[in-house]
Write a structure and sequence with these properties.
There is one protein chain. By secondary structure, this protein is of the alpha+beta class. 18% of the residues lie in helices and 48% in strands. Strands 2-3-4-5-6-7-8-9 form an 8-stranded antiparallel barrel. Strand 2 and strand 3 form a beta hairpin. It is globular. The N terminus is likely disordered.
Length: 198
Amino acid sequence: MRFNILTYGLSLSLMLVLTFTSNAQGKTFSIDTQKSQVKWTGKKITKKHYGKIKVKKGDVVIDAGGLSSGEIVIDMRSMTCDDIENPKYNKKLLKHLKNDDFFKTDKYPESSLKIKTATKISADKYKIAAEMTILGQTHPITFTLVIASKDKGYQAKGTVVINRTKWGIRYGSGSFFDNLGDRAILDDFDIEFELHTK
């Protein structure tokens, strides 16, 4: 009898420890790559181009306090251009963006964003400190993320502004080349995303 009580007590203690550990670590939700979308926008002095990039994989961790951490990987080779209707010039721009002047997608087919800290600033809004990896180089970034419950999962929206020159992408940059005139390409480009969990 005493042995049974002791065994029950040990089992109950172990269950409590495991439950506490699970709650402390939070629950991991996989990113739904079919529903999620990432839009890029690059700007020149006189015009802009934009398109999409597919999400390859990712996940977020939600604990009792809300968003805890997460990581998303995007497929740079899937980049599209949605504003140029002429097939010839559309293909030309994409080839330019994927070659050595910009993202070198043959050598670096993936880019990623890893959340380091998520500080809640309102019920559904977070200030995110993350690491962005492009061209095999990783640099810190910050941005605002809005996350909400939806369809038994979560939806996250935000915009990340990237200064491409920090990752060594200097083509057409007025910060490094003179006399570019209206051919200058702005250093900052926008990554606007809407992510859905499974």
